Amino acid sequence: MARYDAPSRGSGKQNTFFGGAAILAVGILVVKLIGMFYKIPLTNIIGEQGNADFNNAYYIYSVLLTISTAGLPVAVSKLVSEANALGRHNQVRRTFQLSLSLFLGLGLVSFLVMYFRADALAGLMNDDKAAAGIRALAPAVVCVGCLAALRGYSQGHNNMAPTSVSQIIEALCKLVVGLALAYWLIKAGQPADMAAAGAITGVTVGTMVALVYMVLNYAFKQAGGHRLGQDEAESASVILRDILRIAIPITLSSSMVGIVTVIDSSLVQGQIQRTLLENPDSWTLYAGFVDFAPLEQALAAWKEALPAGAAATLAALNEQVEQANPPVAALALKEAIQAVSRTLYGNYSGALNIYNLPTSLMAAVTAAVIPAVSGALARRDRRGAAKVAGSAMRISALVAFPMGVGLFVLGTPIIRLLFTKLNANLAGPLLSTLGLATVFVCMMLVCNSILQAHGFVSLPVLVMIVGGALKIFTNYNLVGRPSVGIYGAPAGNILCFGLCLALDLILIARVIPRRPRYLEIFLKPFIASLLMGGAAWAVYGLGSKIAMTLGKKSLEAALAAGKDPGGLGAMLCALDRAAGQVLGLSRTGNALMTLGAIGIAVIVYGVLAVALRAISRDDLALMPKGDKIARLLRL
Questions:
Q1: What is the pTM assigned to this prediction?
Q2: For the segment 21-67, what is each residue's pLDDT rounded down to a tens digit?
Q3: What pLDDT was estimated at residue 365?
Q4: What is the spatial distance between Cα 363 and Cα 256, in angstroms, rounded to a whole number?
Q5: Percent of the chain as helix, strand, coil, to the nearest 5
Q6: DSSP letters along 521-576, please?
Q7: What are the sequence ranges of the domains in the chain?
């Protein structure tokens, strides 16, 4: 296979390359922001159980989505770019045709599995109600495969704009169509799982519209001029081998998070259901969050129908449900126990939606870092590569630390602000715990990119396997404890990504020359974030005390009105008015206090970051308008 070495000279080529990376980074950032505006109102439309159904279906799809947007397009773009640089136009066409056929074939197989085995996949996730959403997503898999080939072909010609535009089109269609369908189905009286399937249909429509755009873009480019080549294209087996050789390591690295998520979410929900059934004492953990009356009735009826001496276990229940003619009592209990599990996991999924926002922003950083490090290494500039890697880690730490601390301090207020359909007293503590994991996962993603840019593609895969195994082991043991339950799920994230980050930092220190100085990178953002978190906690706490004081005065006035003769009616009216004031404070007041605390936190952190010199002029040079920002901050 011919090898193409990027030119080490010529700012034009370099600027084109970095400009393309910047386009991809901006596209990723826009897509993630659209995703945020999609997930938050969606959860408020479909509620706790619908949120669980949506996420369980989407986790299955996300593994295939990661495969289509990670290794395969990169492999195609690399091969197309190399052949195009050597003037091998027949090789370019042959590579594209084979990749399109390969992706289409894989997409069709995935479609058949998702559509006709949706019930089995939903059962794998321990959520039978997710089947409708899985079927709604099945056609999207075919479109995603074709999109992968077209995006890889476009990127191979140093044209990143179509990929970014198609991703934005896909996200916008998901936002508009998905939210509209979910809202309409809820208003029509459909259950939460059908509304979740309607929301997921927006994803499928988005992939279809994006595919139409990419096909039209390809057809327009071809109509504009078709260059004939004199070269002889390599055989199909050689090209397919090259595609897989490049794609498989990158795909494994990128998809490990999705695979671990599928296993973990299935395991967590299964453990919740087992504990609820086999140890009813665990119900007290969720007192006030869940109505256990239907489960209590269904459990009593099922136990009465059990043969004498039979164990009342989840395994026995599943065995009955899988019979050709399952007992009615078993089916009723299965639905009741899954309803409770869906409610609990739906709140956890809502916390995960917020937790995933900082990690989503890291995708834009990594998209810009990898070509910068790779470019420096291609020019044999190890000092420059080390400087870029250090700056990337420092910038990531400056972003990740305050976001993690902010989620930890304001977890419950943020849930109460954003999600009216979730139970803030349940989802809030889960989000606070997940906030600690935010720092680890954000920094891990950047470290993975640095290792990959230095050619160590397989090391992040091995690290994720170790971390994922720890996460699964931790969640299996913690969630299954009646005294811990769903609150143990975030602990797996902390241990998993904490271990992955530690291993990545050790590997970077061992295998990369001129490794960054970790103490200089992490210490200043850590100190600034702690002080920022204290300020946010104090501001919100002060606001809460003021709100409680106002509510107490209203209540005292209402009680005083009842002491007067014939003042019972006045007291009731005053109590009603006081209740309205307290309720208003719990909503509007929480919003004002939360936004105020966040605003103060941003100011405090910004001042501290500049005062502590946590960022340098070299770091800002990697950003757009970085020189102007450096001059403004007098760095």
A1: 0.81
A2: 556 566 666 777 777 778 889 999 999 999 999 999 988 887 766 66
A3: 66
A4: 15
A5: 85, 0, 15
A6: HHHHHHHHHHHHHHHHHHHHHHHHHHHHHHHHHHHHHHHHHTTSTT-HHHHHHHHH
A7: 13-224, 264-516, 524-632
